[in-house]
Predict the structure.
Amino acid sequence: MTTIRILVDGNPPNPRDLQTVGRMICWHDEYNLGDEHNYGRDGFLRELAFEGSDSLKSEVLYLEGVTYGQLYNRAFDADIDDPNEYARRLISGRVDRVLGSALSGCVILPLYTIDQYGISIYISQRQRRSSFAQVGWIVCDSKTVQREFNGDMEEAEKAIRTEVFVYDQYLTGDVYGFIVERDGKEDESCWGFFGWDVYENGMADYFLWRWRWRGRSDILSDNRLNPFEWFPLTTPHCVVYF
């Protein structure tokens, strides 16, 4: 008799250690989330825009220094009530437009977490509750969008949304493996299947491939021996006999 035990993976691989197209930039007081980075929480998008462009940084600093001073003096000479607010408002709009143009080829999405009986991460806030908090961003930069998706930003967004979904599975322990026992002895095992549905996480495909390779066509052709008919897919730990 062959027994397949499907179990929660107690030591799953971190999907952020694999090849990704997005950079997950997070800040959290208790958890080490996302990818390693040296960005500060404040001004992250500004730092991101400056990457690889000294001229852009110089332009922004000029606006915030020289141009701000000129606008302040103009407002002061015109006897405007608050010259500082006048100059700040105009400069802020100009800086936002410059930075927005620099980031226009990137896909940038906010990341939120909820910490209830374990942490979970999402692309957007599902409910307006105090337990949700923005923890960072996931970014697919313009060079990656061009290289990996031929400039298709919608496809790039789909890809990084999938990365966040898989990372959430990792954080919440939604990763599984199986042990195959034949006549009471362990014959083989495999781990690191993300998600509980064996048809979507690749586990079913693995079984079919292994059985074909072993010449076990009887399992594939005889419905009475087909374990996929018996998988309790909503149960994180199940045993299948055939």
